[in-house]
Amino acid sequence: MASLLGYCRAGYEADLANELSARAAQLQCYGYPKFVRGQGYVEFDCYNPADADKLGQRLAVADTVFARQLVVVTSTLDDLPREDRLSPVLQEIIDHDDSAMVNGLLLVEHADTDEGKELAKFCRKFAVVLRQGLRKGNCLTYKEKPQGRGVHVFFTQFDRCLVGYSYPDCRSAYANGIYRLKFPSAAPSRSTLKLEEAILTMLTPAQQQQVFREGGRAVDLGACPGGWTYQLVHRQMYVEAIDNGLIDEKLMASGLVEHFAADGFTYRPQFGRVDLLVCDMIEQPDRVARLMGDWLVNRWAEHAIFNLKLPMKKRYETVTQAMADLTARLQKLDDSFVIRLRHLYHDRDEITVSILRE
């Protein structure tokens, strides 16, 4: 039975499983998810083997919430011999090669868990010899071609792996589906990485230039101590920072930040509107979604990037409902919007939403 493999943050397997089931049904692909809580990945077995490839071509990682990577699985290899793991893996890839597609990438990966990280060194070494074997067998280009099909080997144990492939327009471009960032020493909190990752991975370069233009105005709700404000100031935007707590002194000294000790739910922009609203307040997700809707519907903000804090259970359902209500309000407007939702690597129990007015 062919399947679709999805990577996720450990503990979010049920949420990814629910999302894959729902998204597959929308594409008229049916099956069932398999996972163990905490393992960091989900397998979605398709009743029709052809549906796994269909999902691989039509379901992009960027259009999902909880998936870090999506791979069409062609085979699962158990009890790999310790003395020669390479031969059976190499043979499986060759047997399922598609002459109509050029294999331009090889990714040997593992789950983002403590158990998975024990495999990291082995995966790196295995990738070297597997890459050589694939190139020798003309199953992989000698130079990496990101526009080609990706060959994936996902180890769950030293003697067990899933073998498959991904399509260039649908996979994540990053190893293990993780976009890693270096913490900027001048930022006042690590929360700054959440907004930076959102900007760099959820917006195209053209959208970044449009939304984060130098001299633009933004509002940061729940700004203290200024992690998200830092990203705006770094891009030379004027910021109205809203929080009853204090904002980092260096940010205030930039001359680009005005601090208002006010309630984020009742605050309104000083000049009637701003280019961008950002929000990382710790509040109920439906309440934050309604507030974001107020700002966008009333055009107090052109665009918005915000986090929705997630409950302990039924996280996918909670997100779906909150965003359905918000989307319904936006659809009544004459404007059109680009909406993306992602559980980013630097997020924890929250998802990041970007809504850009076109």
TrEMBL record:
Domain Ribosomal RNA methyltransferase FtsJ: 189-282
Catalysed transformations (reactions): cytidine(2498) in 23S rRNA + S-adenosyl-L-methionine = 2'-O-methylcytidine(2498) in 23S rRNA + S-adenosyl-L-homocysteine + H(+)
Domain Ribosomal RNA large subunit methyltransferase M THUMP-like, first and last residues per copy: 84-167
GO molecular function per UniProt: S-adenosylmethionine-dependent methyltransferase activity
EC number per UniProt: 2.1.1.186
Superkingdom of the source species: Bacteria
UniProt domain RlmM ferredoxin-like: residue ranges: 1-70
GO BP terms, alphabetized: methylation; rRNA processing
GO cellular component terms attached to this protein's record: cytoplasm
InterPro entries xrefs: RlmM_FDX, RlmM_THUMP-like, RNA_MeTrfase_FtsJ_dom, rRNA_MeTrfase_M, SAM-dependent_MTases_sf
Keywords in alphabetical order: Cytoplasm, Methyltransferase, rRNA processing, S-adenosyl-L-methionine, Transferase
Pfam families for this protein: FtsJ (PF01728), RlmM_FDX (PF18125), RLMM_N (PF21239)
Positions annotated as active site in the UniProt record: 309 (proton acceptor)
S-adenosyl-L-methionine recorded as keyword: yes
Localization per record: Cytoplasm
UniProt: S-adenosyl-L-methionine binding residues: 191, 224-227, 243, 263, 280
Stated family: Belongs to the class I-like SAM-binding methyltransferase superfamily. RNA methyltransferase RlmE family. RlmM subfamily.
Function: Catalyzes the 2'-O-methylation at nucleotide C2498 in 23S rRNA.
Oligomer and partners: Monomer.
Protein name: Ribosomal RNA large subunit methyltransferase M
Organism: Salinimonas sediminis
